[in-house]
């Protein structure tokens, strides 16, 4: 929210009070509290009829400092609150006083504030460099004539500092100059609204900020006070965490460890998914024709997904197959599984009035209520739909029991759609605050479904295809980018959303190949295929038209075949990257900022990414194949052609539909599988170690780890390039080959 009218004045009806003067500071061993007057105190009388702002600080984890600003502390906390599974049982900080300054230190991060005089906060890195600060207007509250009360903070932006993240946002990748509101919405990919609002941003200076508030948080990123990031909540208390680096990877690792590291998706989920599409006509014969058509054309398929109309119209969700269209669901699923497929079905947390579950849920009190005690209902999406109340443990168990029936039929995963349009004029079973629950609802929804999958299928076999998320939602992968148009522009905005989500702690992300709305031009479809099959997860999906490749011509079939098989060959490398995301929070699809934080150009690159640490992908967003992309420092080798390019430099190239800039970093050793037919094959069978040593590469030693399908280490290879000779030492007796690309001798 914006409070000011230019630099000098407040907006009409707004009255702001800023922490101005330190009146007292209290230190414990691991936390501190400061009390700041909102005006200069010249005499005793100035302490009367005036507020204090209480500022408390502690460390929920090493390298993370929490600051809580409070005006009136008596407001009842109704919840919900973000779960912080990585929080320490007590503050992970030490305190000390140095002259007229108090300090709280946790790992490489220190908070410094004066013990007397002018109030202010400074956050310093391990070398004593000021990362950011809250200056004279940095800790405050504002009252508005409409009766609302807002707490807000401002943290300084340095010259050239860029801000990233804040969830899956399709607006410009660098958030400087934007107003960003944390409020879940079903707005598609072409608006400022977002399905996944994450109140965390990452700075190019090597720190992050997480606002620990699940309700609406308004960010003004250099868009009100141009040298500040301002964030505000309509509340009496505001808590934010500053997360230390020093590198962006370190920031993400600390943040993800605090809010929850992502589960490791099963290897089969990295293969190609094909869906029925949304409103198209389909039955078992249609589905079988799609599956057989993919096999006949040599396009490996891993997952088949049934979208909404596997259920009867007006009865979403009753979790029952439409008997007129699918009279033998168990037999159909078995027949599809005999073809080597996993099965996913669409669900949402809404129960239409025509569904048999409506009467059951209403009788048991499992739906969200109005303040008058009625069931909250509306007709948007499903006629008379009610909303499952996941704050009620019995309602959650009931919902899970309905899904278990599908798992018993052979379903392997769920597309957890929707969860954004959650009303605020309702009453929750556990008494949660409706405004705070609006964003947080999707977390409870995805958690309920994911935990059921883990219970029934086992840890490491659970996977969602989720659209909405809140902070901590990265624990329940995978998430996809929502409803986009079938155009190059929408393809680019989808990538921007994925990059922003990656810098918000999410390790795995996907999108609808070809776009969702409309029918893509064949050129769009073919370019999107390459992009989609070089993403962490890959799904062909549309709205009113099918997305089987032959609908877009023979060349589309060739492109789909080529890049699906390439992804399968990359799986020993890619699953190793997935294991890293699972263990550290560093995402599989990495904005260049993560690997090249000192490169100013890398901070703004939003049309390319790194797949893991070593493979650069620059999707082509044009019909004619012209692409402009940035090559970071070093020598890079085109994986598809063997050509080398040297950076830092911008490149302009033209690529056919069977190609795109796909570059491997100098000195990398890619572990490539021999099995092109599936993502979860036996990776150690005839493994290839491809060593990238173009001219000018110095001697190096690389350790390559190939995981098994549980994420454990299956084999380790130490690769040494010295004097033009390659030596490999390994702990496995399985045969492998070594290929040197750009060999010097």
TrEMBL record:
Signal peptide residue numbers: none
A Pfam family: Glyco_hydro_31_2nd
Region: Disordered, residue numbers: 76-100
Low complexity bias spans: 85-100
Enzyme Commission identifier(s): 3.2.1.177
Keywords on record: Glycosidase, Hydrolase
One annotated GO molecular function: alpha-D-xyloside xylohydrolase
Domain PLAT intervals: 715-745
Family: Belongs to the glycosyl hydrolase 31 family.
NCBIfam families for this protein: PRK10658.1
Protein name listed in UniProt: Alpha-xylosidase
Organism: Streptomyces glycanivorans
């Amino acid at each position: 929210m914006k409070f000011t009218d230019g630099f000098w004045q407040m907006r009409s009806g707004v009255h702001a009070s800023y922490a101005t003067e330190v009146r007292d500071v209290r230190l414990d061993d691991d936390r501190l509290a400061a009390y700041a007057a909102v005006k200069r105190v010249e005499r005793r009388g100035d302490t009367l009829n005036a507020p204090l702002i209480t500022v408390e600080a502690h460390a929920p984890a090493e390298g993370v400092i929490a600051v809580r600003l409070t005006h009136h502390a008596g407001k009842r906390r109704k919840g919900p609150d973000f779960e912080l599974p990585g929080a320490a049982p007590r503050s992970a900080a030490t305190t000390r006083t140095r002259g007229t300054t108090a300090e709280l230190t946790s790992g490489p991060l220190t908070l410094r504030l004066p013990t007397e005089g002018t109030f202010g906060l400074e956050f310093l890195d391990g070398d004593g460099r000021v990362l950011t600060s809250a200056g004279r207007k940095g800790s405050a509250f504002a009252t508005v004539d409409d009766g609302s009360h807002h707490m807000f903070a401002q943290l300084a932006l340095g010259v050239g500092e860029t801000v990233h993240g804040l969830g899956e946002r399709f607006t410009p990748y660098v958030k400087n100059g934007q107003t960003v509101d944390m409020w879940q919405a079903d707005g598609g990919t072409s608006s400022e609204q977002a399905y996944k609002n994450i109140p965390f941003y990452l700075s190019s200076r090597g720190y992050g900020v997480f606002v620990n508030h699940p309700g609406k948080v308004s960010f003004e990123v250099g868009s009100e006070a141009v040298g500040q990031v301002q964030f505000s909540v309509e509340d009496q208390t505001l808590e934010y965490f500053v997360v230390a680096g020093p590198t962006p990877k370190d920031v993400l690792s600390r943040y993800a460890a605090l809010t929850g590291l992502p589960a490791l998706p099963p290897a089969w989920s990295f293969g190609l998914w094909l869906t029925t599409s949304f409103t198209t006509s389909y039955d078992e014969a249609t589905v079988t024709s799609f599956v057989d058509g993919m096999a006949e054309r040599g396009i490996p398929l891993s997952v088949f997904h049934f979208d909404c109309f596997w259920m009867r119209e007006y009865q979403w969700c009753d979790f029952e197959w439409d008997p007129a269209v699918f009279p033998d669901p168990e037999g159909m699923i078995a027949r599809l599984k005999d073809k080597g497929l996993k099965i996913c079905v669409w669900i949402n947390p809404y129960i239409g009035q025509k569904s048999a579950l409506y009467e059951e849920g209403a009788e048991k009190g499992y739906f969200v209520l109005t303040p008058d005690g009625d069931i909250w209902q509306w007709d948007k999406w499903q006629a008379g739909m009610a909303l499952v109340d996941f704050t009620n443990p019995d309602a959650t168990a009931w919902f899970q029991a309905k899904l278990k029936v599908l798992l018993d039929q052979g379903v392997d995963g769920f597309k957890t759609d929707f969860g954004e349009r959650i009303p605020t004029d309702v009453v929750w079973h556990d008494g949660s605050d409706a405004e705070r629950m609006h964003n947080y609802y999707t977390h409870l929804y995805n958690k309920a479904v994911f935990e059921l999958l883990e219970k029934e299928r086992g840890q490491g076999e659970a996977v969602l295809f989720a659209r909405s998320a809140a902070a901590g939602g990265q624990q329940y992968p995978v998430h996809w980018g929502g409803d986009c148009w079938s155009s190059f522009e929408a393809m680019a905005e989808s990538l921007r959303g994925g990059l922003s989500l990656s810098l918000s702690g999410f390790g795995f992300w996907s999108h609808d190949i070809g776009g969702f709305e409309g029918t893509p031009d064949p050129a769009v479809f073919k370019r999107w295929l390459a992009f989609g099959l070089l993403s962490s997860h890959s799904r062909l999906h549309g709205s009113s038209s099918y997305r089987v490749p032959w609908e877009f011509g023979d060349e589309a079939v060739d492109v789909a075949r080529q890049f699906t098989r390439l992804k399968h060959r990359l799986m020993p490398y890619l699953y190793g990257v997935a294991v890293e995301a699972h263990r550290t929070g560093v995402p599989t699809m990495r904005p260049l900022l993560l690997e090249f934080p000192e490169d100013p150009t890398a901070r703004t690159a939003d049309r390319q990414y790194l797949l893991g640490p070593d493979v650069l992908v620059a999707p082509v967003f044009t019909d004619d194949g012209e692409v402009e992309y940035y090559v970071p420092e070093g020598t890079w080798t085109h994986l598809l052609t063997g050509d080398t390019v040297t950076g830092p430099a911008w490149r302009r190239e033209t690529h056919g539909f069977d190609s795109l800039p796909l570059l491997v970093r100098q000195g990398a050793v890619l572990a490539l599988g021999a099995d092109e037919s599936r993502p979860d094959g036996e990776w150690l069978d005839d493994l290839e170690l491809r060593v990238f040593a173009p001219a000018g590469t110095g001697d190096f030693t690389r350790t390559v780890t190939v995981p098994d399908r549980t994420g454990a280490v299956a084999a380790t290879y130490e690769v040494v390039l010295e004097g033009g000779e390659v030596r490999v030492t390994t702990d496995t007796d399985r045969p492998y080959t070594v290929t040197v690309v750009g060999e010097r001798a």
